[in-house]
Design goal:
Family (chain A): Belongs to the prokaryotic molybdopterin-containing oxidoreductase family.
CATH topology of chain B: Alpha-Beta Plaits
Structural class of chain A: alpha/beta
Helix content of chain B: 25-40%
Strand order of the largest sheet of chain A: 5-4-22-21-20-6-7
Pfam family, one (chain A): Molybdopterin
Number of domains of chain B: 1
Distance between the termini of chain A: 58 Å
Number of helices of chain B: 21
Shape of chain A: globular
Low-confidence stretches of chain A: 1-14
Distance between the termini of chain B: 46 Å
CATH architecture of the domain at 112-222 and 575-858 in chain A: 3-Layer(aba) Sandwich
Strand order of the largest sheet of chain B: 13-12-1-15-14
Number of helices of chain A: 39
Largest sheet of chain B: 5 strands, mixed
Mean pLDDT of chain B: 94
Low-confidence stretches of chain B: none
Domain 4Fe-4S Mo/W bis-MGD-type (chain A): 42-106
Structural class of chain B: alpha+beta
CATH class of chain B: Alpha Beta
Radius of gyration of chain A: 30 Å
Radius of gyration of chain B: 24 Å
CATH superfamily of the domain at 112-222 and 575-858 in chain A: Nitrate reductase alpha subunit
Oligomer: heterodimer
Subcellular location (chain A): Cell membrane
Main location (chain A): membrane
Number of strands of chain A: 37
């Protein structure tokens, strides 16, 4: 038919019914193949996304003609029981866009080197006799160094080769090790579970080198320190399916649909079982839309609301009536019955530390960690089973059976001394809620007197202290509440003026929560998230909420307890992975550094720290120091925190000095080191962090976007660490000068010699790096994935081969290892004697090194420096840099017999043996790894991890429970894994389908096909102790510093509030407003990942945005989509305004990790500077209590305890951006 | 009675997370190509809000759907045939690109290859249409989560309410509305097409634009009241949601349905009486159209219906699927799913379970679980979306879901039976619980793969599998 007749077909009468049922005559329906062809594909490959979101979703990748075409979610997870929803489909819109990155113009396809550096290197290589010398000629020449460092971030990359780029890197690493010490080489990568072997690759390489892997969980403030404080566990949390078991749920600061998109359905679905869902959130969030009630608490005041709810629950469920379920739970599983000394401290009567067996005259090992309680049946003070005093010395007593540990007799812990009280003592308790109380409240407590080695001492129980603190009226006086309408701390009426939540709503919600818990035996749950976690006082906010959880007996109960979902991404096969990641198979003592401290000093943020601890400490105490950095020096000295680089001399130099002074053995060398420190002949680097010999030199970033996403105090990174253009507005203005840190003038030279990025996309870290290696995407490599959100392990697989010159992380670090080994040989620098200073670790005897929570500083003569006791352990390691490659590619000998976790170990020798056949062995007879199982290929490493881990190898799972039986004197723990003894999950199994993990002691709970994982169920059901000083869940943290800062018990502390700027930055005619600056997760990105994806940017506003309340915006004349700048002393962001009624007045939302490489103009407050990332206005604020170590659960573990990189207590000045300058010259 | 089978979808808005996964997976599957960049066959809107394209519900402006003429007969709102013929080359009701949005990308290359600068390089937006640098001022989801509060205020469902909606922080509310082609029983687009390029497939009711026949007149674009037909500026042809027929034909649910992370989409077959479509769509009172549509849907267990279906050539597999259809249960048995804007008279075959919302602030401390009128999203607002303004039907629908929750709560805690009247039986409430809460994959999606189009010449199809003769061969 001609085109003309087609056109006028409209005129030809056709048989069209209004319903439109008709089939075209022309061409029939063959055209329908048009869309059928579009849908067709050649293969489907299972893989996942390695993004830090905790999703761990299995995806199907559709490949057509050798090109990845699209992806959608796998729906074939092993099924859950019939009476609950399944885990399918798991995924989110962000992940669904990933295929775009593979072929996008953002892809890093080749190795790149900064132009200036490439030129210098190519020149230096011509004259130098080896690569190390070539490198020296560049970095030791201030002019040359400045030339390339000051160009960081300004574009101008040149293409390089793998040979050249790895050689520059190797030369710098080796030069640094030789000249300053290997602990000056560091690496940052985020949460491992999302791509375990990619993480392990870099960490293994660094650990073989003696370098310093940096932590992540604490650094991005996702670690809730309250968890170790309360439970002695990093974080443990129910799988999302367990929400479906709950009878009542509060989502508190957690925006489930946005940040837990794949799991959110369990929350909407459980409502249909009649479960009420309450949203506690300052804004009308996505999670609020599908809730039954909204408690619109003012940002950061959550602790006040929780304290008031606690007040209601204690009064109505403990005092007005007895709730048997709650009471029995409290006696058995919490520290409520334990006795606390009430004594004169600093001139006031206040609760002190726990009473222990040593106080009562016992002298044996561990007696100072044997906390005591009163047995109600005998009326005697007894040491129960399960305290930390027995953990390392008397395993058969380390369990939660209600027994007298000395006689084995049954006991009934007494909650209160009220009925037996010998008196009422009025104590002073710290209080931070308002000005008028001047920091102190007076409360009355019942006490009895006990005879101790120090004479008679008044004691009370933790329970009695809690009631007093919450202001519950027991008829014994003190400042208590007679009714809920009293405006007394911590009543519902008191909280209303702080939180804005109506008192009657707080009361009703508390009642409903407790009532449901009583009815359902603990199935009340609180899902907690980043909204309340990223504050300076997040730990104390959390503890007020965790108290509700424990008051109602909900923890360790399926469908109950806390469900904490902030970056907690459980790495299931932890032991096998840990062996490879730490390189413990070849060399002991990895340097696992807490990032917050590291970046605080490396980026010189102590120079601009607003915090004066005199303002933060309890009015009942004096701070040891006023500058937070000083506490960190103390923590390094006392072995509380790791501190790398450690000493102001390299280890080899130190050992040479020791030998010259006559030291021979390792012990003698250690003695020499301790004395040299005491005599101040040797210094910790943190005492002089700006000195040339003391700062880090090389930093790897892989699987992460440090600069664009997690650089708290971003502009200080650019200024001090990198030495390039930055927008710091005010520096060197610390509130107080540190006492323990040498203050030098800043030279702005840029501490790092190399910033090395390994990524598949060009984001900010790449832009500011000196070398960028092209990485494989998640559709081009093999790896493993797991999460706390679901009970499966599953795989990454290559859907297509690595495109262009990209490599997987495993292959990248293997290539680097090969180059390092070659350059070491060529340059004649191979052997190195290293001393690693290790902190006193949790789950090791180090946790009982410093009893009674007393701080004794050897540098002040309060004790002697004794490695492993009053200062860090010193461990000697011999390295050979020519062997890095040989070791990297094979499983070493140190793990061929035993492996384990959490202070337990079990036999793995037979399973290690199976790897010889499974993976093959290294056949080069020259190699030190000759004949060892190969992990040359990443898939081999995956199988090694699966074989050596108890949650993927049933035989080992059973052994792990056996080991726990031996450690606790409990029997019949094996049952938890028994049925699955024959299972051994392999990589290829998971190619077919994700696999259910096997219960093992590496987690605190258990699960099987018909049972959802819930943490601490091994404690509540099997009587395995909590890893705390009392062995129970802690309401009371008695360490001296916790008491100094008023945090022995949970309470309310207001957020920090500093003036955004000191100087005058006003612009004529441009109105300004000061707002709280909050950085919640972004709906259109997962951290900075996906933020730059064209599809995600299209689905919202096309770049950085800042959300403002409508009235606030009107006040500064800002309309929706206007350009706005927001700044404070730390830096400035430029973003489009989003104006909305769902945001309360006084706060702004600049969503987290919006990166600065997309659509960001220059700013006005700092001309000639581009607006920064969301972190530009932030600053590291360290909390001293997070640095405590050597004391029970308050002991260091990597990503487990340490200061958090919180960033929420910020204010900014917001105003319309007068001119938009794109700075494109 | 003339029975037709229709593949139909239900979206339970109460479980919608507003995550937009459906939009992305749909886009990747169908429209991430030149000329189609601005198309979202499936999009998600925040409500209140103006949607995509902007204010699509304003039929005063767009003249979409059907009206009744003076004699009470159905007529396209865009006007008579003559009228439309007049507009063949000029459509005043045609949405423009700015009503959707101008698609853009970024100068990503500059980050790696832009050379050394005095400042950090940055990737700026560039139009995918003009290829010029551009400012981003509107997008397909611009007012997500009540961004730009003024947009929420101009939602026609709100302005129609004739009462003051306080739009401040204390009273604020929002929910999400995912939208796709409704594959209507009485599609206006089909009737409006001058080329006869649009048809409703006989076997499954999927409405398609033949890419062979379409001549790009674009009459379908304004006439679809849901604005779910798009004009491809590269091919000059109309395109629309194809209900993923290449997947349906193989028994797979639509991409948007399968990838829905909220697990809120249900797909199944319903039978309806084609002979009655016109009459039902032409009902005088627009508030009756919803119930008429439900009436059109026939009981697949009724022997008469089964017989008539067989006579119509509907296979046993389809009859069985209709009997197990989750859509039938939600729409007809329990009456908890409603059509979007039934007053447009197109009889949409995509249905929505209206959403619950938080308890009103003033009664939060008194109410454990609310009733239909104690929630934040006003019943009238939802009624304007789903029942042509009938609040009674809307409240009844919400109450059924609330009753189910209370029934289940009492089952869990052993608190005894519900103490008010409920209009579903315990079995119905439990069945509803299973489908809405447990939502197992095979219960959400019941799709027969035995499709008419593939019945003919199966052997040939098996052997050819799309093989076409090379040019000059196969005489």
């Amino acid at each position: 038919m001609s085109l003309l007749s087609q056109k006028f077909k409209f005129l030809r009468k056709k048989n069209v019914s209004p319903s439109g049922h008709q089939i075209t005559e022309d061409g029939g329906r063959e055209w329908e193949n048009f869309y059928r062809d579009r849908w067709s594909y050649d293969k489907v490959v299972r893989t996942t996304h390695g993004v830090n979101c905790t999703g761990s979703c299995s995806w199907n990748i559709y490949v057509k003609n050798g090109v990845v075409a699209w992806e959608n979610q796998a729906t074939d997870y092993p099924e859950t029981p019939d009476d609950m929803p399944d885990y399918e489909p798991r995924g989110c819109p962000r992940g669904a866009t990933f295929s775009w990155y593979l072929y996008s113009p953002l892809r890093v396809k080749y190795p790149y080197v900064r132009g200036e550096l490439a030129e210098l290197w190519r020149e230096a290589k011509k004259n130098a006799k080896n690569p190390i010398e070539a490198w020296k000629s560049i970095v030791e020449d201030p002019e040359k160094a400045k030339k390339y460092k000051s160009a960081r971030g300004m574009g101008g990359f040149v293409r390089s080769t793998w040979d050249e780029a790895t050689e520059i890197t190797a030369a710098s690493l080796l030069y640094t090790a030789k000249t300053y010490g290997p602990d000056r080489n560091a690496g940052f990568s985020v949460i491992p579970a999302m791509s375990m072997l990619s993480y392990a690759a870099g960490a293994r390489f660094l650990n073989l080198m003696g370098g310093t892997p940096l932590s992540f969980y604490d650094w991005y403030a996702d670690l809730p320190p309250s968890s170790p404080q309360v439970w002695g566990e990093q974080t443990d949390t129910p799988e999302s399916g367990d929400w479906y078991n709950a009878g009542y749920i509060m989502t508190w600061g957690s925006n489930v649909p946005l940040t837990r998109t794949p799991d959110a359905h369990f929350l909407t679905e459980v409502r249909y079982k009649g479960t009420k869902v309450v949203s506690v959130s300052p804004d009308y969030a996505e999670s609020t839309t599908s809730s039954d009630a909204w408690l619109n608490v003012k940002a950061g005041t959550d602790a006040a609301l929780a304290m008031a709810m606690g007040h209601v629950i204690l009064k109505e469920y403990y005092i007005d009536k007895e709730t048997p379920y709650f009471k029995e739970y409290a006696k058995e599983f919490t520290d409520m019955p334990f006795l606390v000394r009430v004594e004169d401290i600093n001139g006031t009567v206040q609760p002190g530390r726990f009473l222990n067996a040593k106080d009562l005259g016992r002298q044996e090992d561990g007696s100072d960690f044997q906390m005591v309680l009163i047995d109600d049946t005998t009326n005697e003070i007894v040491v129960p089973n399960g305290t930390m005093g027995d953990r390392h010395t008397n395993p058969e007593k380390w369990n939660l059976r209600l027994e007298n540990r000395d006689t084995g007799a049954k006991i009934d812990p007494r909650l209160s001394v009220f009925d037996q009280r010998e008196g009422v003592t009025v104590v002073k308790l710290p209080y931070f809620g308002d000005e008028e109380h001047e920091g102190v409240i007076e409360r009355a407590i019942p006490t009895i007197t006990v005879q101790t080695v120090d004479g008679p001492v008044k004691v009370t129980t933790v329970y009695d202290l809690i009631l007093a603190n919450y202001g519950i009226d027991r008829g014994i006086g003190g400042e208590v509440a007679t009714s809920y309408t009293d405006d007394t701390p911590y009543t519902p009426t008191w909280q209303e003026k702080i939180t804005g939540v109506k008192a009657d709503i707080a009361i009703a919600t508390a009642r409903e929560f407790a009532d449901n818990a009583e009815k359902t035996k603990g199935r009340s749950m609180i899902i907690m998230g980043g909204g309340i976690n990223h504050w300076y006082h997040a730990d104390i906010i959390y503890r007020t909420i965790l108290n509700l959880i424990m008051f109602c007996g909900t923890e360790g109960v399926n469908g109950g307890g806390w469900a904490h979902y902030v970056g907690q991404e459980k790495l299931r096969p932890i032991e096998g992975w840990g062996g490879i990641m730490t390189a413990n198979d070849w060399s002991k003592a990895p340097r696992l550094q807490n990032s917050t401290s590291w970046f605080y000093f490396a980026t010189e943020q102590y120079r601009s720290d607003c915090i004066d601890l005199a303002d933060r400490v309890s009015k009942l105490a004096k701070p040891r120091y006023r500058h937070p950095g000083d506490y960190n020096v103390l923590a390094a000295r006392l072995g509380w925190l790791p501190s790398y680089p450690t000493f102001n001399k390299g280890s080899q130099e130190l050992i040479n000095d020791a030998r010259a002074a006559g030291a021979g053995t390792e012990a003698e060398i250690n003695q020499y080191v301790a004395q040299a420190l005491k005599n101040k002949e040797l210094q910790f680097c943190v005492e002089d962090p700006a000195a040339k010999e003391n700062h880090p030199r090389n930093l790897f970033v892989w699987r992460a976007n440090l600069i664009g996403s997690s650089s708290k105090g971003h502009e200080y990174f650019l200024k001090h660490l990198l030495g390039t253009k930055n927008a710091v507005l005010e520096d060197d203005d610390a509130a107080t000068r540190p006492e323990e840190i040498k203050w030098r003038e800043a030279d702005g030279a840029g501490k790092l010699d190399l910033l090395i990025d390994i990524d598949f996309r060009m984001a900010s870290t790449g832009l500011y790096s000196d070398i960028v290696f092209p990485a494989a995407t998640w559709y081009e490599k093999e790896d493993l994935s797991s999460t706390d959100m679901h009970p499966y392990v599953h795989v990454f697989q290559a859907a297509v081969d690595c495109a262009w010159e990209t490599k997987s992380d495993w292959d990248t670090f293997r290539t680097l290892a090969e180059t390092v080994s070659r350059v070491a040989k060529e340059s004649g620098f191979t052997e190195y004697e290293d001393i690693v200073a290790l902190p006193l670790g949790h789950d090791s005897p180090g946790e009982v090194a410093q009893p009674e929570g007393k701080v004794l500083d050897w540098s002040k003569g309060e004790c002697e420096p004794i490695p492993g006791k009053t200062m860090p352990n010193l461990v000697h390691v011999k390295r050979d840099y020519s062997q890095i490659f040989e070791k990297y590619i094979a499983l070493g000998p140190n793990i061929e017999n035993k492996m384990g976790a959490h202070g337990l170990a079990w036999d793995v020798s037979d399973e290690y043996q199976t790897l010889y056949a499974q993976n093959g062995t290294i056949d080069n007879p020259e190699f030190i790894s000759h004949g060892r199982p190969s992990i040359y290929e990443c898939k081999e490493a995956c199988n090694a991890v699966l074989t050596l881990s108890s949650c993927t190898n049933g035989k080992l799972a059973v052994r792990s429970w056996k080991a726990m039986e031996e450690k606790t004197g409990l029997s019949d723990l094996e049952k938890n894994a028994k049925g699955r003894e024959q299972e051994k999950i392999t990589f290829d199994d998971m190619v077919r389908q994700p696999r259910f993990i096997i219960s093992s002691v590496t987690s605190t709970g258990k699960n099987d096909k018909n049972r959802r994982y819930s943490p601490f169920t091994t404690s509540t059901e099997d009587k395995v102790p909590f890893r705390t000083v009392t062995g129970r869940q802690s309401f009371y943290c008695d360490h001296e510093m916790m008491r100094d800062y008023g945090e022995a018990m949970a309470l309310y502390k207001p957020v920090l509030s500093y003036k955004p700027v000191q100087g005058d930055y006003k612009q004529e005619g441009i109105p300004e407003i000061t707002l709280k600056y909050l950085t919640p997760h972004n709906k259109w990105a997962t951290h900075s990942m996906y933020f730059d994806s064209q599809q995600m940017l299209t689905l919202f506003r096309g770049g950085q945005t800042i959300w403002l309340n409508e009235d606030d915006a009107a006040e500064i004349g800002v309309k929706d989509n206007d350009w706005v700048e927001a700044f404070n002393k730390n830096g400035v962001v430029a973003a489009r305004a989003v104006v909305s009624p769902r945001i309360p007045r006084g706060i702004s939302y600049m969503h987290h990790a919006q990166d600065r490489h997309i659509n960001v103009p220059g700013t006005q407050v700092k001309k000639d500077r581009r607006g920064g990332t969301h972190n530009a206005p932030t600053h590291i604020y360290m909390k001293p209590t997070h640095m405590i170590g050597g004391y029970g659960q308050l002991s260091y573990g990597f990503n487990y305890y340490g200061p958090t990189g919180n960033q929420r207590d910020m204010t900014i000045v917001a105003r319309k951006l007068k001119e938009v300058d794109w700075l494109e010259d | 009675m003339k029975i037709k089978a229709q593949v139909s979808m239900v979206l339970n808005l109460d479980k919608c997370l507003g995550c937009h996964t459906c939009s992305i997976t749909c886009k990747n599957t169908w429209t991430n190509r030149e000329g189609a960049e601005y198309m979202y066959f499936n999009n998600v809107e925040t409500r209140p809000g103006v949607g995509y394209p902007r204010n699509w519900e304003d039929q005063e402006k767009w003249k979409g759907g059907w009206t009744l003429d003076n004699s009470g007969k159905l007529a396209l709102s865009t006007g008579s045939k003559t009228n439309r013929l007049m507009k063949l080359f000029f459509h005043p009701e045609q949405p423009e690109l700015k009503d959707y949005f101008e698609p853009w990308t970024y100068d990503y290359e500059t980050l790696i290859h832009g050379g050394r600068k005095n400042n950090q390089p940055v990737a700026r937006p560039r139009s995918l249409v003009t290829k010029q640098k551009m400012e981003v001022t509107w997008g397909p989801n611009w007012d997500d989560d009540l961004a730009g509060g003024q947009h929420a205020r101009s939602d026609v469902n709100l302005t129609k309410m004739g009462q003051d909606i306080v739009f401040d922080y204390e009273e604020v509310f929002m929910r999400y509305l995912p939208r796709l082609c409704n594959h209507c029983l009485n599609p206006a687009c089909v009737a409006a097409c001058p080329s006869g390029a649009i048809y409703k497939r006989d076997e499954d009711g999927v409405v398609l634009v033949s890419q062979d026949v379409c001549r790009g007149w674009r009459h379908c674009v304004p006439s679809c009241p849901y604005k779910k037909i798009f004009y491809n500026w590269e091919t000059n042809k109309a395109e629309k949601c194809v209900f993923c027929y290449p997947r349906l034909e193989n028994g797979l649910p639509q991409i948007c349905a399968e990838t829905c992370v909220g697990r809120m989409r249900y797909v199944g077959v319903v039978f309806y009486d084609m002979d009655k479509v016109e009459e039902m769509a032409a009902t005088k009172n627009e508030q009756d159209i919803y119930e008429n549509t439900v009436e059109l849907i026939l009981d697949p267990h009724d022997p008469e219906v089964i017989k008539a279906a067989r006579e119509e050539g509907i296979s046993e597999a389809w009859i069985k699927a209709a009997q197990k259809s989750p859509v039938y249960k939600l729409v007809k048995e329990w009456g908890v799913a409603l059509p979007l804007h039934p007053e447009y008279r197109t009889l949409p075959m995509v249905w929505y379970v209206p959403p619950l919302s938080p308890i009103l602030q003033r009664v939060t401390s008194d109410v454990y679980l609310p009733d239909a009128h104690e929630m934040r999203v006003p019943v009238q607002y939802l009624a304007n979306l789903f029942t042509a303004g009938n609040t009674e039907i809307l409240a009844r629908t919400l109450q059924r879901v609330l009753d189910m929750r209370e029934y289940m709560r009492r089952r869990e805690t052993g608190d005894g039976p519900i103490d008010h009247n409920v209009d579903l039986t315990e079995d119905q409430m439990y069945g509803m619980y299973k489908l809405l809460a447990l939502s197992k994959y095979n219960d959400r999606f019941v799709i027969p793969s035995d499709v008419k189009v593939s019945r003919e010449g199966r052997l040939e199809m098996q052997q050819n599998r799309g093989f076409a003769c090379p040019t000059g061969g196969c005489q």
